[in-house]
Amino acid sequence: MLDLFLGSLLILASLYSAGHTLLHKRDPRAALCWIVLCLFAPGLGPALYWLLGVNRIRTRARDWQIRGQGMPWAEAPRCSWDAEMSGTLPFRAENFAALLSLSDTVTRRPLLEGNRLFPLHNGEETYPAMLQAIDEARSSVFLSTYIFDSNGSGQRFVDALAAAAARGVDVRVLVDALGERYSWPPIRWRFRRSGVRIVRFLPPSLSGRGIHLNLRNHRKLLIVDGLTGFTGGMNIGDRHLAAGSDPRRVIDLHFRVLGPVVGQMQEAFLEDWHFATGETFSPQPPPPAVTGGEGYCRGISAGPNEDFEKLIWLVIGALGCARRRVRIMTPYFIPDRSLIAAINTAALRGVEVEILLPERNNLPYVGWASRAYHWELLQYGTRIYYQSPPFVHSKFLLIDDQYALIGSANLDPRSLRLNFEFNVEVYDRSLTALLGEHFDRAREGATPTTLASVDARPLPVKLRDAFAKLFSPYL
Fold it and tell me: Which residues are listed as membrane-spanning (predicted)?
């Protein structure tokens, strides 16, 4: 009798879990996998689904808004295209006006003028600039990072942050709970007996928030005194010292930011701090425009707590605005069907599309899956190049020498659907010129791939790549 009761309970749990999946999962491939697991692995399937497959983050965010605990953002202004202004402001051109309207609709922040952005290459340029800003801090230092290694570079940041806190500066550090495990001991141990407030983002828990191995805070933000910001794709650790001896060293790009958009970076950090700690805050006025600031910028927070899959929508929107040239540099490139269609559509319209990828990926299975998609792009005119080691972790999107999208997100399902990411869209001809020159130099030293070379892969390699491609939604 007891066996019959337990068996009936398992069947009901499986059916209920499968039904919940059917109603709530947006991606039919993910839904199908969970349904099969729930129905054919009674007990284990439903348990894994409710632990790992249910996005409670979005539910909590909506609950905050209903109770009035959401952040009180002003409604973003809309753009009306004016042909007389198209020669002076790039986003007033007809094609970019459409992109501006899209961004106004799916983001919570307005486009702000009067910003300056300075590219910083590798840890050799980035870390000294960040440490100097921390040393000069007078009121606040907010740091958010995915990986914070406890090696030499990490220790220099620990010392600088602790010294700032000892001077009476409000120092807060937010590190991803999974990302901190990339080194031992965990970096938070180094902050013991300091005045630095360090918090982990989504630590594993069997109660409350549950276990969210897939939902990581991948944002890289440093905001000092609310006036100076740093963002991009760079974590904190010795591997970002390109001239070092670490066999895992990487080439990377980061940005020093001045101007009103720094206020949006601080908003993003404080939202995450509120999520992690429950502490509330009042919105602060943005910093003033800076002298010589020609950049029109908008900070874009994206993650599983948002109503829109805004990053993929904005990338597709930007590709649709391209008239002459698209340049993409990314370490992880696993496009979904909509992104493949947008790239191919741009190429078939006569737009020159170039993609720079690392020749040897630090995650081999991601590189295998990526290569399985290349023939779909090469056959319609997209050009793909491989950069020789060391691993290139830099990431940005350039459209027509007018528009740049920079930040922490990669072009893969994890960044576009699962991670908490922060990017900045920029209309600044000076910055896009610098990034364009950087891209072109890298392309000149890269190896082009062709449809013939993709077709010439040995059969075992093709099977390996195709098998890895099956897991694309989860890589």
Answer: 29-52
